[in-house]
Write a structure and sequence with these properties.
Strand content: under 5%
Radius of gyration: 26 Å
Number of strands: 0
Distance between the termini: 60 Å
Order of helices and strands: HH
Helix content: 55-70%
Number of helices: 2
Number of domains: 1
Shape: rod-shaped
Largest sheet: none
């Protein structure tokens, strides 16, 4: 049983009043904390990239719309 299963199940190592992820033998599960940190870092990077890409996508859409309208006004075919 992993430390995450023990912690999420509500059971704790006898005598420990802390909410620390532990192995069944009572030692702290460093691997569980590393997995949590990696997931949080990946989520932060995804959020950063999506917030950075959104304005670029908006500018590109505005340029494309302007280009299509300009071609429609001059009668040139799009493409």
């Amino acid at each position: 049983m992993s430390a995450q299963e023990i912690w999420s199940g509500g059971s704790r190592w006898p005598g420990s009043g802390d909410a620390v992820l532990r192995h069944p033998n009572g030692s702290i599960d460093i691997r569980a904390y590393a997995a949590i940190a990696h997931r949080q870092r990946a989520a932060a990077l995804t959020s950063l990239l999506s917030s950075a890409v959104r304005p670029i996508r908006d500018v590109w859409a505005a340029i494309t719309v302007r280009r299509v309208h300009r071609r429609a006004a001059t009668g040139k075919p799009c493409g």
